[in-house]
Write a structure and sequence with these properties.
The structure holds 2 protein chains of 2 kinds. By secondary structure, chain A is mostly beta strands. Helix content of chain A is 0%, strand content 54%. Chain B is mostly beta strands. Classes of the chains: A mainly beta, B mainly beta. Chains A and B meet through strand 4, strand 5 and strand 10 of A and strand 4, strand 5, strand 9 and strand 10 of B.
C-alpha cells in the first residue's frame, strides 16, 4: 500500500542458501525499513536502509541480515546462510512523509519458507 | 521479552457500537505510538498515531488515547462498521532509534 511494493510474494529456499527480497518505494523515500513478522509473536525490526548508504546497519547481532540500496527507490534485504527459523513474512515499510520519519506505509510482504 | 502487548487476541462488537482495542507497553523510552489495521495477505495499513507528549489524538471515527503513567494506550472506533473487521496492531517507537515494536495483534470482528 501507499506506493510500497514487495517481490516476490512467496519464496521457498533450501536451508543454508542466501536469499534476496526486494522492496520498491515509488516515492523514493530516504529511509526504508525491513521487518520480520512471525505468527503470534508480532513483528521485529531487522534493519533499515537510507538512500545515502549503499549498505545498511543491521539490527540483528548475527549479521546475516543486511539491506542494500541499489537505487534510491529500491531496497534489497539479503539473508545469508538461511536457517529454518528465518521462515516468516518479511515486510518493507516507508515513512509517511508527513514530517516524521516513522515507518508507516507497508508493502504486502514476502512470505519466506526455508526447507 | 514482549515490550508491547495486546492481551486480547480477539474482540467481537456489534455494528454501530464502540470498539475499544487495548495495548500495554513496558519500555518507558517509547515516545511514539501507532495503530495499524491488517487484512489477510496484505501488509499493515497505518491508521492513527500519537506522540508521547499528547494523551489523545482523533481522526474521524478513530481516537487513540495514551496513558503514560499506566503505559497503556487504546484505540476507539465509533461507530463500528463491518469493514472494520480486521486484525489491529499497536506499535511503539523510540524516535531516532529507528526501531518499531509491534504487539501481537487483536482480531476485531464487527457483527451486523
Amino acid at each position: 500500500g501507499a506506493g510500497v511494493s514487495q517481490s516476490p510474494r512467496y519464496k521457498v529456499a533450501k536451508r543454508g542458501r542466501d536469499v534476496a527480497l526486494r522492496c520498491d518505494s515509488i516515492s523514493g523515500h530516504v529511509t526504508l525499513y525491513w521487518y520480520r513478522q512471525t505468527l503470534g509473536q508480532g513483528s521485529e525490526v531487522l534493519t533499515y536502509s537510507q538512500s545515502d548508504a549503499q549498505r545498511d546497519k543491521s539490527g540483528r547481532p548475527s549479521g546475516r541480515f543486511s539491506a542494500e540500496r541499489p537505487e534510491r527507490s529500491v531496497s534489497t534485504l539479503k539473508i545469508q546462510r538461511t536457517e529454518q527459523g528465518d521462515s516468516a513474512v518479511y515486510l518493507c515499510a516507508s515513512p509517511c512523509g508527513c514530517g516524521g520519519n516513522q515507518p508507516q506505509h507497508f508493502g504486502d510482504g514476502t512470505r519466506l519458507s526455508i526447507l | 521479552d514482549q515490550q508491547v502487548k495486546q492481551n486480547s487476541p480477539s474482540l467481537s462488537v456489534q455494528e454501530g457500537r464502540i470498539s475499544i482495542l487495548n495495548c500495554d507497553y513496558t519500555n518507558s523510552m517509547f515516545d511514539y505510538f501507532l495503530w495499524y489495521k491488517k487484512y489477510p495477505a496484505e501488509g499493515p495499513t497505518f491508521l492513527i498515531s500519537i506522540s508521547s507528549i499528547k494523551d489523545k489524538n482523533e481522526d474521524g471515527r478513530f481516537t487513540v488515547f495514551l496513558n503514560k503513567s499506566a503505559k497503556h494506550l487504546s484505540l476507539h472506533i465509533v461507530p463500528s462498521q463491518p469493514g472494520d473487521s480486521a486484525v489491529y496492531f499497536c506499535a511503539a517507537l523510540i524516535q531516532g532509534a529507528q526501531k518499531l515494536v509491534f504487539g501481537q495483534g487483536t482480531r476485531l470482528t464487527i457483527n451486523p
